[in-house]
Each structure stands twice: as structure tokens, then as C-alpha cells.
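Morning F.,

Quick status update on the modeling queue. The single chain you submitted on Monday has been processed. Sequence for confirmation:
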Amino acid sequence: MDAASREEIGTMAENNRPHIDVTVPNVARMYDYYLGGKDNFAADRAAAAKVLQVAPFAPRLARQNRSFLARAVRYLAGIGITQFLDIGAGLPTQGNVHEVARQVSPDARVVYLDNDPVVVTHGRALLGVDRNTVVLQRDLRHSAELLGDPEIRELIRPGEPVGLLLLAVLHCLDAGDEPYRVMADLRKGLPAGSHVVISHISGDDEVTANSSTVYRDASTAMTHRTPDEILGFFDGFGLLEPGLVALDRWRPDDTTAPAPATGSGYFLCGVGRKESC
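C-alpha cells below.
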């Protein structure tokens, strides 16, 4: 998709939904910029530049987050998970969930959810038509409704284990959004044998404070949580080895990888299994 087409999609979304303003930085498009993508606007690039001033390792963490996603999805597909619910999916990029899962399970079904209508518009345009893949506009905060949503149920079949993906999205919820209640709602709706995949920013220092200030001016604020607070999202799940770790430490493809680089502790991840209903 060329620059003119991307701008047209953004303009269409803005015209159809007057409350959407693509001149306001957007978390998903900033993430796309970190990954070297093209689906971002001047406001996103300007905000990302401010983050890079205090956290120059952000693009590396974004790439590691995508790599973790791919490894986790391959693992889940390899143990027989054939349906995936990706909440806070953001913009499509290389190695999307359905692409990774279908390398192992060709009939894998994937529902992508995001609450941003511009992101959803981009996603639908970029992914095209696929009978086993859908992009829907939904809000994670309405968690009690998600797993029973009729459109989601068209692909996510009741009673079958689900791969629930919450990559870099739970930190978009602050205390007022009741994130642990959100997680409890989702866990309750999952059949036994389902798995949850979570990545979340961490840290409590000048870097996190300064980057959080930038994101507060964007479409979504960020809430950094301690490792113990992040572990709370796995309540009711059996945390798989190696537990809650830096992104590049979750079952790396290269077991001879060097020591964690600067900034790795700012982004943690893990995978849990629901043993019973």
C-alpha cells in the first residue's frame, strides 16, 4: 500500500467518524513506526521521536515483542490450538497471527480486535478477505461481553480451547479501567485448555515516567506495572516455563542468545494455561 492509499484510508475514517483525528498520535501507529512500518502519520512519528529521546531501545523492544508473539503462536498451534483471539491487535505487519498459526495449522481461525476505528479500517484494508480471519472494532474494557459476541463466535467456537493474545494492551488500562476484573471476565469465558499470552511494559524510573508523559498526549496512556502486578494477570492460569521474563527470554529460537540488552527489563512476557473451568 503506497503513501497516498494510506492517507486516503485515514481520511475516509476521519470523514466517516468526525471524532477521529489522525493528527493526534496513536499508540498502534507509533508501534508500527517502531517496527519500520509505513502505516503512520506525522503526529505519530513526532510522538515516537520524543519517546526515542528517553528510550532509544523502543524499536528493539517492539521487534522483540513481535518475535515473542510469533514464538508463542507457533507453540500454541503446535499443541493443537486452532482458534486465536488477538485483543488490541493493532495494525497488521509481517508475521501476523494467522500467518504464523497457519504454518502449523492451515485451517487456524483468527479474530483480531481493536478499539480504534482508524486502526480497524487500516487492518481490514491490509488483511483483505479471508473466511477464517476477521477484524472487528471492540473495546477490551467490555470484557464480559467479548467471548459471547455473535460476530466473534462466528470463528471462535464455544468449548474449544482458545489462544487469547494480549500483547502490549493491558498496560493501556489504568486502575480506573479495573484491569484485573477485565482479566477475570476473560478467564471465566475461556474453556479449559485455553492459553493466555501476555506482554506488558514494566519499570519505575525516569525513562518510564518520561515516556508515559508522551503517551498521555497520544490516544492512550500507558500504565507501567511491577513484575508482581503483571503476574496478577495470570491468576487462574498455570504459568508455563520459563515464567514471566524479558521478551527475548521466552523460549528463544537461539538458545545461545547473548545476555539481555539495555532496556530489556522494561517489557515482560509470559504464557499461561487454564487447567479447568
